[in-house]
Amino acid sequence: xxxxxxxxxxxxxxxxxxxxxxxxxxxxxxxxxxxxxxxxxxxxxxxxxxxxxxxxxxxxxxxxxxxxxxxxxxxxxxxxxxxxxxxxxxxxxxxxxxxxxxxxxxxxxxxxxxxxxxxxxxxxxxxxxxxxxxxxxxxxxxxxxxxxxxxxxxxxxxxxxxxxxxxxxxxxxxxxxxxxxxxxxxxxxxxxxxxxxxxxxxxxxxxxxxxxxxxxxxxxxxxxxxxxxxxxxxx
Length: 235
Known about the structure:
The chain is mainly alpha-helical.
């Protein structure tokens, strides 16, 4: 056979062998497309809901953020207006009327109590602080601070004020030493100097005592006739 005729025949034979592979690939691809379209027809609504949920959630978060910013701005304006009052009683009344949420509510309550105390409204100040101290939505550290400040006010009987401070004076509490200091003052007011001195020494010996608190304790101990070492000073 003429060699020139062999090459075309071989090429045709090779082409004939590859056609079945191409056909199988095309059929497989077609089946994949059909399956994909089937999934889309069956579950496409899920994808639509997911997209709508993402878009809707983003829009809602933006709306809430805008609302929160507006509320915070309004509370800030009301606080500034209240603090601008020259009369202490009017300032205290205006502060008590300020409405705020979140951390702004904590700041507002503390400022309100301070303003009420300055206006001579100790009972109102104690009520503001007690409301903050017993609010479960308030962060624990702010509740503790409010409880200490409330106990410092000359409102209520002494046993109740001491009882309010006792849990805050336990080891591990953030305001433990400050609570002990207030307990020492209140104990001294009851006439129990021995008990007050014992509390003051407990503060002085604590490794976490600050320089300022240590100085206050030592000054009071000396005023009570006690030295830093624990012995009574000669009268």
